[in-house]
Amino acid sequence: MRLDKLLANMGLGSRKDVKQLIKSKRVLVNDQVVKDSGLNINPIHDTVLLDGEIVEYKPYIYLMMNKPPGVISATEDKFDQTVIDLLPSKYKHYNPFPVGRLDKDTEGLLLLTNDGQLAHQLLSPKKEVIKTYYAKILGRVTKEDVAKFSKGVQLEDGYQTKPAVLNVLSGGDISEIEVSITEGKFHQVKRMFEAIDKKVIYLKRLSMGDLVLDKTLALGEYRELNAEELSYCQSIK
Questions:
Q1: Is the predicted pLDDT of residue 206 greater than 90, yes or no?
Q2: What's residue 89's pLDDT?
Q3: Residue among 46, 80, 85, 103 flagged as catalytic
Q4: Burial class (CB in 10 A: 0-12, 13-18, 19+), 48
Q5: Active site residue 103
Q6: Cβ–Cβ contacts within 10 Å for residue 231, how many?
Q7: Which end of the chain is more exposed for a tag (fewer CB within 10 A), N or C?
Q8: 233 close to 211: Cβ distance less than 8 angstroms
């Protein structure tokens, strides 16, 4: 890879900017000052320093976000704030995108990456990656509702969902539940409860397969996946 391309790809400026950095003798490769911005280097084996700091080359990023309500799961929007707007420039330059979508008013686990192959695997219906949600439901959720979910319910458009696991945490006029589904139809959890004459008033995604929302992340916060989490995501093939 050309040195100027590597530096530009790491968000250190435009090609023109990084050429000036190199011309100013601020860039070292394997402890040697370089003047040729077109120098071909091996980003894995060669050590690149800018002002004495190592420039670590990463082709992909993988971020876990605790998506806040009121923010949409998109890369850009003319009217609403997007999850990408919450990121600093050091991540934006990778051009990440959300893996799947959470409704505007839904909170919780959202994976952001620029790795299209990994995203495709996680979202593939054939993989049946289990997604678990916590929700507050207007109305008492009963054992009969649990049984209906276990067989799949018919949505308003006639679609029969796959079986889902519904666990009632607390009953009452407002029930608290956890539900696990293997699909990702539009507004699916909300529509499944509408099919049994109940309404979701709060929804939060807790997990996607073995990828579990970090409880230390406040709404709107994010972090890079750790080695174990990334290994799990990459194992879905």
A1: yes
A2: 85
A3: 103
A4: buried
A5: yes
A6: 11
A7: C
A8: yes
